[in-house]
């Protein structure tokens, strides 16, 4: 795929700076590869950990939804400088120096992500690329002017918001996840456990009834056995053939007691929580995921939908999911509670993870494609623009690289998110993913500085707090990795910029 893109890109850039173009492409694809290995693994980590999907199934579904999100809704244009984190207009930057900044940022962020992925640390790809751009820009600033002028290039208030996000993101994710899973556990899982205990007690009662009946029957005479057997046959025909029979019509003591046990079983309403609470939660989840797709995942497609249109679509999706889940729950009536609960939450979890993956592919691919598109624009036109067009060929190539990264180096991060931080079940995995999606949407609405990776980790920790099974020992190096992501990427980018500037 990269070879094809290189062949295509030579014409696109008018054969300008061929060596730079080849290196920039390799750096960009390498960055997309490592985004796949670290960030994409977050989307399906809880699904794998909960046993909903196998690793191979998760890879296949992620391949479809991540690439679709990147190609369909990845954006036609992208900001030249990620998040406006640096202001290069205050110094005289030549176009090729700008290219070296972006190349350095891509390489530095990719190297840091590779390092983190191999250790199973989920870190922010956005913070990585921002750190790379800041480090390379500061280096150029020191080369062109004094130290104070170089420091003035950086929008330090934006750096401050990133520092805030180190705490805000996991805390928000943890609070929402804790609240949602606590409600699920209290109203659904605990209800099911109590229902199972009552059903188990009734099974024991029925077993004792059978033993007592067998013992009593064996003590009867032959004539009494024939008479009692005829009574039971008539009772069996009545029980099986008539729905509105009266218990007083039953002749045998065995069937009267059996009918009493059956009446007790019906009063338990074992599938009550699955038929009433789960469809409501599924509908709320569908609304949140569809809002994420409409307001974030598909925002670059310019569909012409008003805010009211989006809310109406969300309402329709939620209603359809509520009806489908309710009917599905009714079809499971009679099956074991454990299996029914696992099946329902498994479907919901896969749905949530798929929507999260599509939105992720549409948004976070910009961490690789943004700087690369800026490089292409400079190589093609010789000028630095405020925005750069994103060729479809580049989006497809980077989407494929994203999935290749997930396949080759994503398993460690999946293991961390799905297994090592806490034990996952489809219900808890669904709660973590839905909470992360809800917080991402809430943060986008209010303009809060958050990281989707940090939010999801916080959500997983929230699940662990409810279950009292959190691996805080593993969280320490992950938190440290979050803190050093920005300076580590910045330092690597500074070194890369010095090398590129000296070499070319």
UniProtKB/TrEMBL annotation:
The chain crosses the membrane at residues 18-37, 58-77, 97-115, 127-144, 164-184, 277-298, 310-329, 341-362, 389-409, 446-466, 478-500. It comes from the Bacteria. Pfam families: PHO4. The keyword Transport applies. InterPro entries: Phos_transporter. Keywords: Coiled coil, Membrane, Phosphate transport, Transmembrane, Transmembrane helix, Transport. GO terms for biological process: phosphate ion transmembrane transport. Residues 192-219 form a coiled coil. It is found in: Membrane. It is a multi-pass membrane protein. Belongs to the inorganic phosphate transporter (PiT) (TC 2.A.20) family. This is Phosphate transporter. It comes from Altericroceibacterium indicum.
């Amino acid at each position: 795929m990269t070879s094809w893109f290189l062949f295509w890109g030579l014409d696109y850039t008018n054969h300008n700076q061929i060596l730079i173009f080849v290196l920039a492409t390799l750096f960009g694809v390498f960055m997309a590869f490592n985004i796949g290995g670290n960030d994409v693994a977050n989307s399906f980590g809880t699904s794998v950990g909960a046993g909903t999907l196998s690793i191979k199934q998760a890879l296949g579904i992620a391949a479809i939804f991540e690439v679709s999100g990147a190609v369909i809704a990845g954006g036609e244009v992208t900001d030249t400088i990620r998040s406006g984190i640096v202001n290069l207009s205050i110094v005289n930057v030549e176009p090729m120096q700008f290219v070296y900044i972006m190349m350095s940022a891509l390489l530095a962020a990719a190297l840091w992500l590779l390092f983190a992925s191999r250790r199973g640390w989920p870190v922010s790809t956005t913070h990585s690329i921002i750190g790379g751009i800041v480090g390379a820009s500061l280096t150029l600033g020191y080369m062109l002017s004094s130290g104070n002028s170089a420091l003035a290039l950086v929008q330090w208030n934006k750096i401050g918001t990133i520092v805030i996000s180190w705490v805000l993101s996991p805390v928000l994710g943890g609070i929402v996840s804790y609240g949602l899973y606590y409600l699920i556990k209290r109203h659904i899982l605990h209800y099911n456990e109590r229902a199972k205990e009552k059903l188990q007690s009734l099974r024991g009662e029925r077993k004792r009834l059978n033993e007592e009946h067998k013992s009593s029957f064996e003590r009867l005479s032959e004539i009494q056995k024939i008479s009692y057997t005829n009574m039971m046959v008539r009772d069996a025909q009545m029980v099986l053939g008539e729905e509105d029979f009266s218990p007083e019509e039953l002749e045998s003591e065995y069937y009267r007691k059996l009918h009493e046990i059956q009446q007790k079983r019906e009063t338990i309403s074992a599938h009550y929580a699955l038929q009433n609470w789960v469809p409501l939660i599924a509908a709320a989840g569908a609304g949140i995921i569809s809002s994420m797709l409409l307001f974030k995942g598909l925002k670059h497609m310019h569909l012409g939908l008003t805010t009211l249109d989006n809310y109406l679509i969300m309402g329709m999706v939620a209603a359809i999911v509520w009806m489908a889940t309710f009917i599905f729950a009714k079809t499971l009536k009679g099956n074991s509670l454990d299996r029914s609960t696992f099946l329902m939450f498994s479907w919901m979890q896969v749905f949530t993870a798929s929507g999260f993956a599509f939105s992720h592919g549409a948004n976070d691919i910009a961490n690789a494609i943004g700087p690369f598109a800026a490089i292409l624009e400079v190589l093609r036109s010789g000028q630095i623009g405020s925005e750069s067009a994103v060729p479809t060929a580049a989006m497809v190539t980077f989407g494929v690289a994203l999935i290749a990264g997930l396949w080759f180096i994503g398993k460690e991060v999946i293991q961390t998110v799905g297994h090592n931080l806490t034990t996952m079940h489809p219900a808890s995995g669904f709660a973590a993913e839905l909470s992360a999606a809800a917080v991402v949407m809430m943060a986008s609405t209010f303009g809060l500085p958050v990281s989707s990776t940090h939010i999801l980790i916080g959500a997983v920790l929230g699940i662990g707090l409810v279950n009292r099974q959190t691996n805080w020992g593993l969280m320490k190096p992950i938190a440290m990795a979050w803190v050093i992501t920005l300076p580590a990427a910045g330092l690597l980018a500074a070194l890369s910029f010095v090398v590129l500037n000296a070499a070319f």
